[in-house]
Known about the structure:
By secondary structure, the chain is mainly alpha-helical. The chain has two domains: 2-15 and 116-181, no CATH class; 16-109, no CATH class. It is 68% helix and 0% strand. It is built from nine helices and no strands. α1 (5-29) runs antiparallel to α2 (36-49), α1 crosses α9 and α2 (36-49) crosses α3 (56-68).
Amino acid sequence: MKNEIQKYIDQFEEKYKLDDSCLHTLFKTYKDNVDIDWVIVKATTLNSLYTARVSKDDLHAIAAKIVDCKDFDEKLKTGFPGAFCLIANKSGEQKRNAHVFASKYCHFSNPEKYPLYDGRSRKSLAYVYKKEFPDKKFDPNSLFEYTYYRDHLDELLKQWGMDGEDRYKKIDEFLWMYADEVPKE
């Protein structure tokens, strides 16, 4: 499996490199989350390019929560899960979309501390993790919890010797593209 990773990363980058580059530039240029206008610009651009499916009204509400949280930027810098939770605080169908959006917003704000999370990556991680660690206790249903997802992703990254500041970006690109290869259960 480890030998196949670069193939999928290359496929992702060929297809999505410009979108990814635009988002990284936007989030680096306007890294502080104190001006609601720029938070909405970042949130709206992210929602559009990464198809997070969060409504306009919810984006505005999320932006307001981010700006109102006085230590939000500090939480992002440290990788504190509370930053993710602040954004992802929704229920039902909106909860899934909010989790996806929250992981992406946190990731582009601090790529070294927050992995990207969505259904495709979760599906691939469940499949790959079971193959890599067949004897370990593992509950794929718990991957809906972001910290459980991140912990198991970190374990896989360590197993494969993937480190560096872009490790979450690379593993996400692999998992996202690999999802089409995962057998249906």
